[in-house]
Amino acid sequence: MRYVLEYPSELPAASAEFLEPEVVRAVAEQAEAAGFSAVALSEHPAPSLKWRRGGGHNTLDPIAALSFMAAATSRIRLLTNLYVLPFHNPYLAAKALGSLDLLSRGRLIAGVGAGYLRSEFSAVGVAHERRAELFDEALAALRGIWTEPEQPVTGKDFGGVSAMWLQRPVQRPHPPIWIGGNGAAARRRVVEHGSGWMPIIADATMAAAMRTTAIETPEAFGAAVLALRRRTEAAGRDPAAIDIQVVCPPMDFADPGTVRAAREYLSDLEQRGATWAVVHADGTGPAAANEFIRTFGSTVIANR
User: Within 13 Å, how many C-alpha atoms sit on residue 264's CB side?
Assistant: First the structure.
């Protein structure tokens, strides 16, 4: 199991201090020192006040923030969790993500999704009902732009008209593409385009809010992993090459019981196919977050 630190600003009750540049730098440096394999941010360019009051969080542009973190670190990988491809022209997405890979010397993991907030789609001028179509189109385009950048790529609403002059990412054939979503369509996209799957184990209410299929239990997660592996093998790909990310349960290091329960839960999911886990630090303030990160590193990562 490898561990991803979700940057603490992603927590609903996180301190606004996590938007300050010196705090961003310090948290990224601490995560690398503690042994985290990646640090992650989500994308919400135009979230509504209703969403924020209903459990949303402060946001930074993930490309800008992860690029800033890349300059402060040297080893930790940089994960978009998630970058909403339907919000973007595929050429602009390829340029932004590819530039992050170049500037970080090949540390990008492109976690991508279809998005779910209808009001946010409206705010950025994209039809919400087209999100699945646009996601599929963008996935194919992104891979084409990265692997054969000189060849023009054309979609329903965009298209290169002649030979192109674009920079390849550092990672070849392209940066890892991890795909979010719980349903059969998400697993199909992993088989066709991805090297990672990012499901959410959550009850039906939360899954409905995120407009995805519910995976409510470890047993259901295991069944979904098995279905993905079978489909991957049928396509002639190695199922063992697909990373699968889950979410680490909350840990309170003052309560050994929560730590033990979380480790047992993650161990169970690892047996069922999980290879990475997203960790949420203490978001009450930078000092508390950095103490959590240090303790997680010495207690969990050092003993994996």
Answer: 6
pLDDT at 298 over 80: yes
DSSP summary character for residue 223 = H
- Residue 72 DSSP SS3: helix
First CA to last CA distance, the chain? 7
Q: Which of 176, 174, 173, 202 is nearest to 190 (CA)?
A: 176
Dihedral angle sign, alpha carbons of residues 21, 1, 194, 220: negative
Q: Is a pLDDT exceeding 90 seen at residue 2?
A: yes
C-alpha distance from residue 131 to each of 79, 121, 147, 151, 182 (Å): 22, 9, 24, 25, 15
Q: pLDDT value at position 33?
A: 98
Q: Are 244 and 274 in contact (CB under 8 A)?
A: yes
- Stretch 130-151: mean pLDDT: 96
Contacts of 228 (CB under 8 A, 6+ apart): 187, 190, 191, 197, 239, 242, 244
- Count CA atoms closer than 13 A to 153's CA, side-chain side: 21
Over 70: is that where the pLDDT of 207 sits?
no
pTM above 0.90, yes or no: yes
Cα dihedral: 185, 191, 196, 202 (round 10)? 30
Nearest residue to 244 via CA among 211, 264, 215: 215
Q: Is the pLDDT of residue 212 over 80?
A: no
Instruction: Find out whether 212 and 116 touch, Cβ atoms under 8 Å.
Output: yes
Helix or strand (DSSP H, E) at 190: helix 184-193
Gap between the Cα atoms of 297 and 99, Å rounded: 30
Query: Which of 27, 39, 28, 44 lies closest to 2, judged by CA?
Result: 39
Tokens 């490309």: give the residue.
63
